[in-house]
């Protein structure tokens, strides 16, 4: 395993802080340079929607830790789909409207039936993770585009020596044995990346972190601090910008969000260190600056972010493009969902903040039917997968 140095700033798993407060080693106090508005909606009183409280006594059984709620067929308010989770990291929606949810700290994968069918969530498999302190474990999940005809799930997880990606067959409602297709991604206590997603071109894109070794981000021979583009067999995808390399873009610190819009443009969230968290528009072969620059610097050698925020307001993880074409970003330290309208020329409009401090730290976001799903990441063994109306995040 690569040695990871102690790192300050926008750590995605740092304890939750109150509004305006900063974690140790973080000095950013300035307002975000992207104009913002804060949602004024108060925390709802519907049962199951209050901010989770910290539990210091772990449950004694799996049954005690994982509970489900069977929602009505047409819910109008917030609904808890899955609870009792030890960091619900990624949500992968299947073609039938059900979903698979990764649990970072245990390696378990949960299957959540399509809401309204009356089914109950179940654990359908476990990945062979190596889990210590920090941000590693079972992270991103991705569903192959032709899942109906070739049901295979892809998973990004941490071992004793690296982060890797495995293809896992979906057989009779269970996960089969993982087949490693790609390995050697640097791992560390911080900055393990972990988001994977299939692009419109059918290839698998992988967001990696620099594992606390900042020099990896500018090193094209390293897989750390990059966005990678690979085939389903784990080979560099045809047309990659650096010959036979899997690297698609570089100069990243810790990528945990990948999403495409209707113009097939790739957007990525980026954890800053002390000053700026970023939303980037990704182009093949481009250098996004870390560790030479953070945030907008107007340096022609590096790509500036489309939007940026002070680290206490964001710490972005999962992102999604909504039905309105805006980019939605799940904020950990910022304990919010940010809506960022983007235009045809790739610029960002006024960002608005939603669910501010309502559910605590938010790890992932997905649009499913006419609802939005989010996962919490409060590190209290009672994290949740929630289904909300689109209006809760400004999308409806």
Automatic annotation (TrEMBL):
InterPro entries: 6-blade_b-propeller_TolB-like (IPR011042), Glc/Sorbosone_DH (IPR012938), Quinoprot_gluc/sorb_DH_b-prop (IPR011041). Residues 85-380 form the Glucose/Sorbosone dehydrogenase domain. Gene3D superfamilies: TolB, C-terminal domain. It holds the Pfam family GSDH. Residues 1-79 are annotated as: Disordered. Residues 8-71 have a biased composition (Low complexity). This is PQQ-dependent sugar dehydrogenase. It comes from Terrabacter terrigena.
């Amino acid at each position: 395993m690569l040695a990871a140095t102690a790192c300050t700033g926008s750590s995605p798993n740092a304890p939750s802080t109150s509004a305006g407060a900063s974690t140790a080693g973080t000095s950013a106090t300035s307002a975000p340079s992207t104009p913002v508005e804060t949602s004024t909606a108060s925390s709802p009183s519907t049962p199951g929607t209050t901010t989770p409280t910290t539990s210091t006594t772990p449950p004694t059984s799996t049954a005690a830790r994982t509970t489900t709620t069977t929602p009505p067929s047409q819910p109008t308010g917030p609904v808890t789909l899955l609870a009792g989770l030890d960091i619900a990291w990624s949500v992968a929606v299947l073609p039938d409207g059900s979903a698979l949810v990764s649990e970072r700290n245990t390696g378990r994968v949960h299957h959540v039936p399509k809401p309204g069918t009356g089914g109950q969530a179940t654990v359908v498999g476990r990945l062979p993770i190596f889990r210590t302190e920090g941000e590693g474990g079972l992270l991103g999940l991705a569903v192959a585009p032709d899942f109906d005809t070739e049901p295979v799930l892809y998973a990004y997880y941490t071992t004793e020596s690296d982060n890797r990606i495995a293809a896992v067959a979906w057989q009779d409602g269970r996960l089969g044995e993982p087949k490693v297709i790609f390995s050697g991604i640097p791992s560390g206590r911080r900055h393990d990346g972990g988001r994977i997603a299939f692009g419109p071109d059918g290839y698998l894109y992988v967001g990696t972190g620099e594992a606390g070794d900042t020099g990896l981000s500018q090193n094209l021979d390293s897989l750390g601090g990059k966005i990678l583009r690979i085939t389903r067999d784990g080979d560099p995808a045809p047309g990659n910008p650096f010959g036979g390399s899997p690297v698609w873009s570089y100069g990243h610190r810790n990528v945990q969000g990948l999403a495409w819009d209707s113009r097939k443009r790739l957007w990525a969230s980026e954890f800053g260190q002390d000053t700026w968290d970023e939303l980037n528009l990704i182009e093949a072969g481009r250098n996004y600056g870390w560790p030479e620059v953070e945030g907008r610097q107007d340096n022609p050698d590096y790509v500036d972010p489309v939007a940026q925020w002070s680290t206490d307001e964001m710490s972005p993880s999962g992102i999604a493009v909504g039905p309105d074409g805006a980019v939605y970003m799940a904020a950990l330290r910022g304990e919010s969902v940010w809506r960022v309208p983007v235009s045809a020329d790739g610029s960002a409009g006024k960002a608005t903040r939603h669910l501010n401090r309502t559910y605590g730290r938010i790890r992932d976001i997905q649009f499913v039917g006419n609802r939005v799903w989010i996962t919490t990441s409060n590190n209290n063994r009672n994290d949740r997968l929630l289904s909300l109306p689109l209006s809760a995040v400004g999308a409806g």
